[in-house]
Specification:
Largest sheet: 3 strands, antiparallel
Radius of gyration: 23 Å
GO molecular function: histone H3K4 trimethyltransferase activity; zinc ion binding
Helix content: 40-55%
InterPro entries: H3K4_H4K5_MeTrfase, SET_dom, SET_dom_sf, TPR-like_helical_dom_sf, Znf_MYND
CATH architecture of the domain at 272-428: Alpha Horseshoe
Number of strands: 12
Keywords: Metal-binding, Methyltransferase, S-adenosyl-L-methionine, Transferase, Zinc, Zinc-finger
Organism: Esox lucius (Northern pike)
Catalytic activity: L-lysyl(4)-[histone H3] + 3 S-adenosyl-L-methionine = N(6),N(6),N(6)-trimethyl-L-lysyl(4)-[histone H3] + 3 S-adenosyl-L-homocysteine + 3 H(+)
Shape: globular
Strand content: 5-15%
Amino acid sequence: MALKLERFVCPGKGNGLRANQRVLAGELLYTAEPLACCVSSQCRNVVCHSCFSRHETLLRCSQCKVARYCDVTCQKRAWSIHKRECKCLLSLHPRIPTDSVRLAARIIFRLLCPSQMTPQLYSFEEHESHLCDMGEEKREGLSQLSSMLQLYLKQEQPDIIQKVPSFDPISLLAKVTCNCFTISDAELQEIGVGLYPSMSLLNHDCRPSCVMLFQGKTLQLRAIRDIQPTEEVTISYIGVLLPTRERQTQLMEQYHFSCQCGLCSTAELDPLMFCGVKEAWTPMKEAIPRLEILQTNGNWEELLQECSSLLAPVGGAVPAVPDSNVYRLRVTDLAFDACINLARWETALAYGLKTLGPYRQYYPDPHPAHAIQLMRVAKLQHFLVHLEDAQHTLRLAYDIMKITHGNEHSLTSDLIRKLEECLAEMDCK
């Protein structure tokens, strides 16, 4: 397949990628394998460390007791990468280093074998560390990670860091922090982190021209609108469900730039995000970090109780905080997730339906998050035998997914199968 992207210097942004031909919405622009990647610590027991597929039961590496695999085939396929890491993990057992330390170590192992590296539009050495832009606290954090990285690598080969040309562990960790991508599963849940050097050239826009999705650990870059020749290709580094100031703060803290995109310049979504009585939605905003910890820890009953309490109407019939308020939407989403995990299907559907209107408002362009939310609701409608509603919701999801995922993606195939089941059941009624 001819390369549809080219590197260029973007005024005011530095390096970037642009289309070298006309690209249509839904077109696959680029497919990339990582220079290095690792499964996130929080998912290490349920995600295969080779193919990155999710399973409840996996084989465990008999030596380090950390890495897990679907089967012997996946284990053998991963061994060339894991054999060095295995010694490092074993030396620190039962401690497990952070994701950034494990990823940095895997990058070093790859840099020591240049013959195994494929040509890229952007080399690892060219990546920006942004160390000069970081505050003292962040640099101190990187220094601590550097000490952990060197301790982690010591068992495998004491002088391994000296064997990598022009290597500075703090600079490497800074590059990892600024340039790695979150690897997500079909439902956009984080399962790992990886470095994809060519894709690090992509600049940010809060309303981008492309989205990135994963099949296992393979990254796919797909256009969500038509792109003209020489037009810059962009992605969004962060989620859109954040007010302008919060997006700007996150981008500055993690990526060290101030976004000047149209959505940030106009702050057009902020009135919708902040709709309702401030005194009523402030407790929701303040509760979200605590609720997300409950979600991460799987405390579903407690999570649902707290969400239900926050969402319960107070006083009159008209809620003080409309469903479109971004903090109420987040709490509703968390309640939706809790009900699904608690198998409370009717309540889950009620919460899920409340999110669809706001999702349409916040994702006016084709966006995978909107498609997946529609698909989750449709599965509940189908399970509860609301067949006409289910087929309608599935069709809405497909209209988005055929652009954001493409018809070859495994999730699109699942959606089509679900729609066929639904239509067949309707015909039998």
